[in-house]
Structures are given as C-alpha cells and as structure tokens.
C-alpha cells in the first residue's frame, strides 16, 4: 500500500531515501539530493557556472609527448609501409595504447598528415643545410651536388620512400591536403629564382628548374627501388654536367643577344 503524506510516502520499488533501488548503484554525483541535480531532474537547465563545475575539463595533448610519439612513428615507418599503417599496428610497435594515439593525433588521416609534414620538413632541412649559392654557376652546382650526396644516405632514402608513398596517396585522394605537392612547388619556385639570379630569363629558368627536378626525383625513385646507389650517383653526375652545359648555353645566348642589340644601337647612333 502507498501512503501519501505531503510527498513523504514511499513509492513501490523505492527505499527509505526515496531513490529507486537501482539508483544506489549509480554515481552519487548524478543522483545526490542537491539543488543542481534536482533542477536537472525537474527539467530546469543548469547555469553555465554550475555546468562548468559538474563537467570535467579534458586534458590538452602534451605537445612534447606528441612530438616524441611522432618521432617514434617515423622511425617505425622507415621499415614499414605507410599504406598498411593502423593505430593498432602502431600501438603494438610502440608499446602504447591506441587511445593515446587517437588522443594526440585524432583520426588516421590526421596522423598521416602529421607524418608527411614531418618528412617533407626534414627534406627542407636537408636543402637548408646545403643551399645552392648563386654567387656563381660553379658554386650553385657544388651546393646541388652536396645536397644530392646527403640525400642518398640510407636513412634519407627511406624518408624519400615514405614521401613518395604519401605523394601517391595524395594523387588518389583529391580531398587530401596537398602537403607533398605544395613542398614540390616550393622547391621548383626556389630553383627557378636561383636560375634567374644566375642570368637566365624567366621562361628558360622555369623550364630548366622543372627538367632538373624531374630528373632528380626520377633518380631518387630509382635508388629507392633498386638500391643501386653507385649507378644512380653516376647518372646524377652525368645529368649535372648536362645541366651545366645547358645553363652555360642559355647565358651565352643571352650575352650574344645583348651584344648584338648593343651593336645595333651603336650603328644607329653613328648613322644619325
């Protein structure tokens, strides 16, 4: 029998506290008799300050830990495939939980973007460490050759393999962020600017920069696929000699045109 005495009677299935028996097993913070939770049960909205006190704030990812994990992931991928990478395979390889990876990197696509940014960033660091100077054509080519030599170390060849793999992913997914393509465009623009500084016209500089970059990328892929670095290095030396010859020919043609133009002006002045 239910006794109604100004709201203090017990409903069937409730204990003396007035809670359902199953409620005792639930977190007391949700069902405690305080003003905030009574408001929630009665349909009233919590104030912003009350909500903030009841809602735990999520921790922000530690940037140092994230960078540490990223370094470990890249080391792992030097001997593995980017295409076959999953949070589970990474977690098993690194000895961490999948939750930790998701917490720091988000989705798999976002993790791949972080990896590709780190790889292309290291390629840029390699270029920065061996910048082709434009004081003379010879010094420019020496800097180019120095960059090539460093790029053919075992580690850098593996990084290039990851970058090539990432480029293929970008090519197949038009909605992906074009990280590798943007980096390549930046390299080509820098090479074009250097050749203009060395005396080439804009169009010739753009064309020669594109040709040399295509040759370099092709030879880097050749080295990744075959591992025949001695043969590939000989091919690069030959390509560099041919590149020098073409640049010298462009400069000679420009000098000849300027000389002819100057002679024409002088003859016209003498005729007047």
UniProtKB/TrEMBL annotation:
Record field: compositional bias (Basic and acidic residues): 15-26, 48-65
Protein keywords: DNA-binding
Annotated region (Disordered), positions in chain: 15-65
Binding region for DNA: 86-105
Domain of life: Bacteria
Positions with biased composition (Polar residues): 31-47
Keyword Signal: no
Domain HTH tetR-type residue range list: 63-123
GO molecular function: DNA binding
Protein name: TetR/AcrR family transcriptional regulator
Annotated organism of origin: Schumannella soli
């Amino acid at each position: 029998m239910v006794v109604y005495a100004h709201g203090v009677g017990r409903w069937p299935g409730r204990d003396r506290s007035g809670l359902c028996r199953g409620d005792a097993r639930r977190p007391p913070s949700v069902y405690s008799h305080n003003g905030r939770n009574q408001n929630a049960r009665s349909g009233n909205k919590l104030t912003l300050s009350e909500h903030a006190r009841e809602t735990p704030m999520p921790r922000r990812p530690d940037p140092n830990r994230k960078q540490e994990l990223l370094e470990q992931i890249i080391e792992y991928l030097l001997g593995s495939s980017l295409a076959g990478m999953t949070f589970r395979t990474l977690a098993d390889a690194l000895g961490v939980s999948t939750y930790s990876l998701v917490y720091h990197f988000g989705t798999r696509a976002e993790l791949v973007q972080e990896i590709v940014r780190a790889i292309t960033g290291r390629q840029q660091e390699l270029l920065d460490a061996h910048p082709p100077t434009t004081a003379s054509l010879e010094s420019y080519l020496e800097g180019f050759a120095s960059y090539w030599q460093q790029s053919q170390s075992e580690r850098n060849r593996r990084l290039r393999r990851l970058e090539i793999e990432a480029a293929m992913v970008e090519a197949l997914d038009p909605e992906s962020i074009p990280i590798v393509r943007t980096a390549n465009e930046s390299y080509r623009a820098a090479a074009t600017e250097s050749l203009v500084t060395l005396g080439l016209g804009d169009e010739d500089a753009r064309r020669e920069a594109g040709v040399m970059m295509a040759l370099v990328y092709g030879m880097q892929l050749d080295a990744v696929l075959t591992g025949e670095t001695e043969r590939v290095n000989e091919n690069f030396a030959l390509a560099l000699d041919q590149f020098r010859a073409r640049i010298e020919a462009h400069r000679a043609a420009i000098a000849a045109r300027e000389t002819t133009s100057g002679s024409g002006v002088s003859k016209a002045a003498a005729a007047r």
